[in-house]
Design brief:
The protein has about 160 residues and is of the alpha+beta class. The chain has a single domain, classed as Small Protein B, Chain: A, CATH 2.40.280.10. The chain contains four helices and seven strands, in the order E-H-E-H-E-E-E-H-E-E-H. A hairpin with a 2-residue loop joins strand 3 and strand 4.
Length: about 160
């Protein structure tokens, strides 16, 4: 019997693409402690409020919430501690250069498992203005109406 492919996604930042214009994405490893890994394996994490920063040639993930492991002892981790992201030097340099301009930031998009290791998809994002968000919603609504009309046409 074939093994079912499981969804390896742990957490998704659903508001990221609504609030930011993502130009490029990078896959980064995360430096975690043992109890953090166990908590992630249980499927508990939130990156909705998280962001990444470049400091002294290293990229750090801040405000990502990985709750304490339920069966951990006194050596359990701090749920919102800053975690180091593991990237290539040229990727870090590109991120540092990108974030120097006003209104640009590093946005965590998705936390997932890949080959048994926790990975984070980080996007280079520029904040959208309110009118840009409205235009995106209008475009999506128009596309939805077109698809609905095409389905109705095919039924006849």
């Amino acid at each position: 019997m074939a093994r079912k492919k499981s969804d390896d996604t742990i957490a998704v930042n659903r508001r990221a693409r609504y609030d930011y214009d993502i130009s490029e994405t990078f896959e980064a490893g995360i430096a975690l402690t043992g109890t953090e890994v166990k908590s992630l394996r249980a499927g508990k994490a939130s990156i909705a409020l998280a962001f990444a920063t470049v400091r002294r040639g290293e990229v750090w993930l801040a405000q990502a919430d990985i709750p304490e492991y339920a069966f951990g002892n006194r050596a359990n981790h701090d749920p919102t501690r800053q975690r180091k992201l593991l990237l290539h030097r040229r990727e870090i340099d590109e991120m540092a250069k990108f974030t120097q301009e006003q209104g640009r930031t590093l946005v965590p998009l998705r936390l997932y498992w890949k080959d048994g290791k926790a990975k984070l998809l980080v996007g280079l994002g520029q904040g959208k203005a309110t009118h840009d968000k409205r235009a995106d919603l209008a475009r999506k609504d128009a596309q939805r109406q077109v698809q609905r009309a095409l389905r109705e046409r095919q039924k006849v």
